[in-house]
């Protein structure tokens, strides 16, 4: 008789969250996320048989917690997936978007691979897999008791990270023994607009906590609306655009909340009716969800404000859908604010806006989130004088501003304060969802505060009845210098972006004269011959 906890993903890593509980002969996953960036190891290979999983608990919609669910379904999972109601709605658009990316990546690789005689590459999963996944999803409200299987029940409480994000309280009963495990998911920052602070919990046998910022404190004054308004005011007065790279779900809606407040208070004096363009179809879909039924998910201030209308809609807001509309933004001389994905500038429409605005000294680029090492966003923050984009060297003359403190994750002190609410203290705390060094540091911080804790390696198995490790995990082997170079540099991803743009350009030339098309084809053929090595 045992109740086991196995750590498959986000063990000494920031992405790929995936943990497995076993009780009463049933296996329950907590999250099934995509490995991203330097954490990517084996996205296409699940560490368990998909058909052996009975249920999945999802803490929130971000892809590093949900992005392999369609793969799980593709490989035979047929159980239920439980989460909060808003998480279910956000998952629907995010998994479909992820599937589109998987299909596009496979298509591009196969176009190249056919010429080289390589085997056909299958996408990690398809849109059909994502849609099949959503058929299994069941949404619940915070505080509801959910009986997953005999002997296993779960309840969600607000984690304050993203609308719908949750800490999962899980009770596991084997015979006459019951153990409770709390999974933080991603624990949110405090005093954020729109969403509530993370709700405290007071009782558990075991705690599985994230540690993204477990070794540092957030900077910034907290006066976000006023500070951002000053940047926008000064930039628009100079005749420049304000370019804001932003993640489509969560951060973009937070920015729209700030900008609605700026307009209501008249904080942008140079142009009180300034235009705000959200150039991200995914962000626009998410914004529509965030403008729906949010009862039970908002903080008190947001509840009061929503009585006057939708939180994220205001005069001067333009939601950009088509690529033609996106291109037109850079042909319009009127100063404006452009919010676009991706947040780290590695892909998406934001790269086109940077190309057209970085060289203009009257413009400003405002970063509102973490920029990982090796990304274009990080290069700009580190003071690059120029960057190469779409085959061109682009001078960096715009103001580059790092808007510190605007984070959706709790920092070290807030993580610790939340963990110390438990009385008595948990029997043991497992530290996950952080870089290896950071997870180890935060585990040490917990031990210094009389909380028994450690950061598990991938594959570790823990017996929750006996309170002991029954199988040690194994650290991931170090990546080769070449692999690290690929993750540390956005060069290859930029190349893929250019290739996608090339395909679009080819389509735009449909109907051209035979002379022009032949010349274009000859130039491309010469380029391919030079670089196909």
Kindly describe this structure:
With 533 residues, the chain is α/β, with parallel strands linked by helices. Helices cover 34% and strands 20% of the residues. The protein has 16 helices and 23 strands. The strands form four sheets. It has an eight-stranded mixed β-sheet with strand order 6-5-4-3-2-1-22-23. The protein has a seven-stranded mixed β-sheet with strand order 7-8-9-10-11-20-21, covered by helices on one side. It starts with a strand and ends with a helix. The mean pLDDT is 89.
Mean pLDDT figure: 89
Question: What radius of gyration results from the CA coordinates?
Answer: 24 Å
Q: What structural category do the secondary elements indicate?
A: alpha/beta
Main-sheet strand order equals 6-5-4-3-2-1-22-23
What shape does the CA trace take?
globular
């Amino acid at each position: 008789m045992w109740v086991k906890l196995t750590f498959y993903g986000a063990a000494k890593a920031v992405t790929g969250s995936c943990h497995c509980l076993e009780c009463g002969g049933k296996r329950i996953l907590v999250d099934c996320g995509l490995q991203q960036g330097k954490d990517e190891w084996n996205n296409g290979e699940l560490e368990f048989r998909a058909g052996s999983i009975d249920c999945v608990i999802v803490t929130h919609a971000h892809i590093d917690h949900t992005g392999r669910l369609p793969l799980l379904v593709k490989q035979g999972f047929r159980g239920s997936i439980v989460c909060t109601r808003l998480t279910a709605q956000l998952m629907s658009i995010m998994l479909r978007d992820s599937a589109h990316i998987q299909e596009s990546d496979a298509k591009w690789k196969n176009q190249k691979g056919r010429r080289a005689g390589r085997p056909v590459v299958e996408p990690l999963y398809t849109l059909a897999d994502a849609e099949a996944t959503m058929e299994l999803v069941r949404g619940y409200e915070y505080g509801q008791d959910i009986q997953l299987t005999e002997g296993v029940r779960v309840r969600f409480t607000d984690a304050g990270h993203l609308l719908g994000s949750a800490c999962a309280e899980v009770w596991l009963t084997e015979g006459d023994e019951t153990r409770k495990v709390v999974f933080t998911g991603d624990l949110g920052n405090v005093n954020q607009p729109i969403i509530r602070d993370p709700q405290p919990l007071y009782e558990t046998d075991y705690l599985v906590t994230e540690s993204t910022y477990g070794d540092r404190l957030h900077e910034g004054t907290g006066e976000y609306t006023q500070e951002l308004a000053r940047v926008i005011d000064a930039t628009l007065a100079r005749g420049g655009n304000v370019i804001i790279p932003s993640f489509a779900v969560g951060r973009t809606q937070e920015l729209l909340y700030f900008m609605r407040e700026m307009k209501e208070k008249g904080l942008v004096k140079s142009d009180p009716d300034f235009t705000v363009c959200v150039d991200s179809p995914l962000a626009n879909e998410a914004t529509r969800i965030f403008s729906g039924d949010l009862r039970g998910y908002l903080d008190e201030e947001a509840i009061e404000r929503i009585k006057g209308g939708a939180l994220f809609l205001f005069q001067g807001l333009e939601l950009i859908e088509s690529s033609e509309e996106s291109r037109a933004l850079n042909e319009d001389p009127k100063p404006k604010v452009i919010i676009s994905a991706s947040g780290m500038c590695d892909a998406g429409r934001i790269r086109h806006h940077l190309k057209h605005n970085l060289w203009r000294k009257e413009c400003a680029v405002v970063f509102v989130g973490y920029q990982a090492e090796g990304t274009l966003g990080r290069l700009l923050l580190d003071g690059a004088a120029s960057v190469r984009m779409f085959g061109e060297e682009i001078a960096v003359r715009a103001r580059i501003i790092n808007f510190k403190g605007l984070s959706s994750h709790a920092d070290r002190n807030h993580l610790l304060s939340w963990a110390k609410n438990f009385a008595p203290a948990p029997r043991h705390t497992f530290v996950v969802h952080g870089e290896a060094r950071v997870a180890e540091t935060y585990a040490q911080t917990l031990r210094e505060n009389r909380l028994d804790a450690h950061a598990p390696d991938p594959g570790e198995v823990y017996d929750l009845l006996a309170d002991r490790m029954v199988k040690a995990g194994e650290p991931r082997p170090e990546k080769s210098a070449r692999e690290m170079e690929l993750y540390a540099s956005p060069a290859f991803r930029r190349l893929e972006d250019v290739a996608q743009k090339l395909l679009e350009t080819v389509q735009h030339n449909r109907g051209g004269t035979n002379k022009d098309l032949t010349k274009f084809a000859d130039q491309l053929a010469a380029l391919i011959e030079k670089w196909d090595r």
